[in-house]
Amino acid sequence: MASTDAGVRGPTRAEIEERTLRTDRWWLSPLTTFVVFSAFVVYATWRAFTGDDYYASPYLSPFYSPCLTDSCVEGSSDFGTPFSWWSLSPALLILIFPLGFRMTCYYYRKAYYRAFWLSPPACAVAEPHGSYSGETRFPLILQNIHRWFWYAAVAVAVILTIDVVLAFRNAEHEWGHMGLGTLLMLVNVVLIWLYTLSCHSCRHIVGGRLRHFSKHPVRYRLWTWVSRLNADHAKYAWYSLFSVALVDLYIYLLATGTIEDVRFF
């Protein structure tokens, strides 16, 4: 009968009582991740549930794009209001898709498994859990739908790209405007696309299950390009997280009258 004692305390491992023999500051990385992620979650939750100060014409916060309910600020519903019956914050209709994409992301799994669940907290550091079931049981089995969230993330990225184009209008929706908000939204959507296209699922979608790359030169080129992006997937995950929050904060400050938009032309 197989032993139920597994992991670093298993019968085939050396008997080391210390949690780790590492002498470096291994705890610094998971601690930083915990603090940054927690701060973002608190900020994003506050902004999502407030339901206001998300539109400063022509800028629409990425937390509320697209705005699809009757409660949307005038001028912010570029795709109509098909969810007119929705009485809660418009952001709660949208954020489930980018949130689901990030929460099931391979990199983010590693990050928050280590930072929040200590599973394990770092390489060569014993975790406090007595057993491990992987992602085969509820709720972690839901991580397997990451690929489907990727398709939704692509749709969100397309919509945010349209928002950038519309941000080249002025407050009266006349073309020929560019402000600091326009540039921030442009940088954000570039980072969003880099994060989305560098995804492991994207790499599999464009080149997976092919027996002969030579017979599929276009998909091979796409696979090669995505593979290069994939090497920096973790960086794009962080950068795009910061840029989304920064754009939302900038638009919030504009909408509340705290600051004025810096206009270039």
From TrEMBL:
<feature type="transmembrane region" description="Helical">
    <location>
        <begin position="175"/>
        <end position="195"/>
    </location>
</feature>
<feature type="transmembrane region" description="Helical">
    <location>
        <begin position="236"/>
        <end position="255"/>
    </location>
</feature>
<feature type="transmembrane region" description="Helical">
    <location>
        <begin position="83"/>
        <end position="101"/>
    </location>
</feature>
<protein>
    <recommendedName>
        <fullName>Succinate dehydrogenase</fullName>
    </recommendedName>
</protein>
<keyword id="KW-0812">Transmembrane</keyword>
<keyword id="KW-0472">Membrane</keyword>
<feature type="transmembrane region" description="Helical">
    <location>
        <begin position="148"/>
        <end position="169"/>
    </location>
</feature>
<keyword id="KW-1133">Transmembrane helix</keyword>
<feature type="transmembrane region" description="Helical">
    <location>
        <begin position="26"/>
        <end position="46"/>
    </location>
</feature>
